[in-house]
Each structure stands twice: as C-alpha cells, then as structure tokens.
Amino acid sequence: MTSPYLDVAELLLKLKNCVVLTGAGISAESGIPTFRSKDGLWEKYDPMVYASIEVFRTNPSKYWQIRGDFIRNYDSYEPNAAHGALVELENLGIVRLVITQNIDGLHRKAGSRRVVEIHGSLREIICQRCDRTYLAPNIPGGDPPHCECGGVLKPNTVLFGEQLPTEALEAAIRESSRCRVMLVIGTSSVVYPAAHLPVVAKQHGAKIVEINIERTIPDADFIILDKAASAMTRLIEAIETLQRTSTE
Ligand code: NAD
Ligand code: ZN
What we know:
Strand content: 15-25%
Shape: elongated
Number of helices: 10
Helix content: 25-40%
Bound molecules: nicotinamide-adenine-dinucleotide, zinc ion
Radius of gyration: 19 Å
Structural class: alpha/beta
C-alpha cells in the first residue's frame, strides 16, 4: 500500500493549481480552541449565542465579555507548522490561494500572500455608527467598547446570522471553481457557505484532499487522518522526496 502522503504529494506536483480551505482545526495546535473541540470554552459558551449578530445587537457586552477568553491577547498566538507548510506550497507555485474561515489572522502572520478571510478578522474592530475601524490590540476600553463618536464597536468578523462579505465570498466561489486540487484542512464542514466550496470545486472537476482528525467530507478523493501540523510537515517531506527522486 502506498502512503497517502506520497499519493497526495504526487497529485499536487502533477496538477498544481491548488486552492486551500482551512477551518479552526488548523489553528488548534497554535492553542486556539475550535468550536467543536471537547476542551472547555465552547462547551461553556455556545457560539451560536455568544457569537450571534442578534445577541450582539441587543447585548454587545455578552460578546465582549468572552472575547478575552477566546483570544485574550490576539498578538500572542503564533502560526504552527501547518500554516508554515502552506507558505512553502505557495512558494513552490502549488498553492494559489488560501481561503480561510478563521478569524485569527495566522495565515497572513505566517507569510501566506494570497489569503481570503471569508469570515473577516479579529484584527479589525468597526464602529457600527460611523464605520471607523480600530486595529487590535488598540481597542478602546469599556464594556462594550465605544468609538470616539459614541457608537458601539463590533469585531469585523462575520457573526452567526450575518451575511458574508460579498466580494470575499465571490472570490472564494470563483477560485474554488477554477482549481484542480482543493486541500481542505481542519474544518467540520458544517458552516455554510464555506462547506459548499469543496462541492463547487468537485463539480468543476477538482480532486478533494481532506486533512483532519475526523472525516467530514465523505466523497473526498484522499483523506489524511492526522493533526494538521504533523500531516502538513509529512506532506512537505513527501513532496521534497519526489522532487529529489525526479532530479536524480
Ligand atoms: P469547527 O470548530 O467546527 O471544526 C474544527 C474541525 O477541526 C473539526 O472537524 C476537528 O475534527 C478538526 N480539528 C481539530 N483539531 C485538529 C487538528 N489539530 N488538526 C486538524 N484538524 C483538527 O471549525 P470550523 O469548521 O472552522 O467552523 C467553525 C467556525 O468557527 C468558523 O466559521 C470559524 O470562523 C470559527 N472559529 C474560528 C477560530 C479561529 O479563527 N481560529 C476558532 C474557532 C472557531
Ligand atoms: Zn464611530
């Protein structure tokens, strides 16, 4: 039996034109809890309540009170080997774009150049009255924090019940329909419309590779059941092995 790593490495080298879709699982090893992980935070606080636009509108403090638990100090989180591997794949001309559901900014921090953050970013805080933006960690104090104009500040992220930014979503759909391989890393594939992107890719003939500790896409062409950081490290090693043997 051949290793899935060598099979996927071969596929990536052959087809190139890869678009990556990432979810909270890729940042788990950077210490950021996923929504559906069993460790604490989201067992205590239901994201559908604490991260919903309806609740935010009526009681913004509810969000701001737990934001500190989710990402106490936004700047203290570092990308892990999986984010780094995607930068290498971009440098190799294999990865064309990273579409992420994550709001942690770690792909850009790792050095990925082409990133679409379809759920926005925690970096930006926006005034609901005048649209002025503040960049974390420089957020005015207060619970909830207010803009200089007196408006309530909201994270520039897509809360449950909110529409996705049109431009980012259109770009994500367009690029998904044009790729030949889609690498889907660490997403539970239940949050729409992100979960629809692999379907779009497959409909247009792309091969789907899933990397996760659980299987979430039943009709993926390849599945690597492992944590993102070790899986991506091994995948890069497999690509290097194939590149070496082809030049020997
Ligand atoms: P999710 O929490 O629903 O699912 C996480 C997935 O990652 C699961 O399928 C799990 O099996 C997998 N996973 C867990 N640890 C892993 C690891 N070490 N390696 C590989 N896979 C691992 O997350 P989702 O699918 O991204 O959807 C939830 C929503 O929550 C998204 O919209 C996202 O914006 C938001 N969210 C973001 C962050 C973040 O920015 N880091 C964190 C939590 C939630
Ligand atoms: Zn304002």
